[in-house]
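Researcher: Go.
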Amino acid sequence: MTQTVPLLIGGEMIQSESRNLIPVTDPATQAVIAQVPCATEAEVDRAVASAKAAFESWKETPVSERARLMLRYQALLKDNHDEIATILAKETGKTFEDARGDVWRGIEVVEHACNIASLSMGETVENVARKIDCYSYTQPLGVCAGITPFNFPAMIPLWMFPMAIACGNTFVLKPSEQDPLTPMRLAELFREAGAPDGLLQVIHGGKEQVDQLLHHPDIPAISFVGSVAVGEHIYRTGTDNMKRVQAFAGAKNHMVIMPDAQKQQVINNLVGASVGAGGQRCMAISVAVFVGESRKWIPELREAMAQVRPGLWNDPEAGYGPLINPQAKERVLRFIQEGKEAGAECLLDGSECVVPDAPDGNWVGPTLFTRVTPEMSIYREEIFGPVLVAIEAETLDEAIRLINENPYGNGTSIFTASGAAARKYQHEIQVGQVGINVPVPVPLPFFSFTGWRKSFYGDQHAYGKQAVKFYTETKTVTARWFEDDIASGPNMTIALK
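Model: Structure:
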């Protein structure tokens, strides 16, 4: 019998009373591996109420105890690393190594949360005026909520609830309904680490459940990662309801290739950054901008991409797995067809990709377009598949201008041997995360994930110091004590008690 994924409410794994069930399918075979319930309105309210009640005691918990919880949690995540990765690979289709990376990058954020004592320190100035001192504290907000996507079911939940909870909040997680088994395993281990009941709640569902969280009066902050359309809805609805919102949305990430770059390094990195994870990541390189003579490397890039073969999660030779569902595959195939019809040259076409061991999988092979112009849909839109478009530019200035005119600003990179070119690029480019001879510049957790423009809606970003600012409020105290009130004489000890 197919398992029904439970909810986590009040510290207990419970079966939802909902009869609205969504099948969870293996992307490589279409076999149903579980079913996930759309939580009822009453269940969502219970989850928020439980988190609100738990907040009353958790906010008073010493910061050192919060840090110790995170230390125990990161140890459990490491002990169960490969088990989590196996669950993740089976429900997402990712290769096992890719799944292991997903889990590990989440663990790194939990390790960062272990430093919460130093991260949450306030500021103090003595004698801001005569015998008057001023100091600030960071205090938690209350019940925070997170809405996470399918493509990183371990890493992105771990971006959110460990940092929020370490800051003294409680948390309601609504993971993707397409791969809920990984987040539930993360929640089980969090309980095993000794998290008090009610600290973390997990509810499942779709737009209806998300909207209930967005309108709920007891939730002051919402974190989201997903598509542009949903990100805009989350941001507008959340802020309209007077909530603090961080919404990470879409991307169209460019890699600029200068003629002085190391050719083989460029090709190797560009292949992995474009088709790795099937292109289903917001930091994937989907546009290669060849400057000047570097355009001559495109045929060799095509040959390298043609060597990458998708396959099953436990196939050590597979370069990446299937797309998450048939609708995602059809969307990518539609873009490939639109590119051809618009006049782009398809040097490598993955439309007819077949994996013999899994003929029903959502397979799309590596795809490469040249002769692409900015008005084409394959350039304008985020394809979210193993599709790379190549554009040529005569100068670095032209490449910078092209990228800055694109509405997205998540990540970009430049490959060059010139420090001056790299300096000019990192300074002038209007993108939040820049790699220099690094294809996918995702920062480690002591920095913050800093997408710009249409890739992000909000003020404070994920993890790093900005996450602490997002999940806390600052209280400033101005204090004055009068020396005439100092007790003195034989009864001083009594007076000071």
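Model: The first strand starts at residue 7 and ends at 9.
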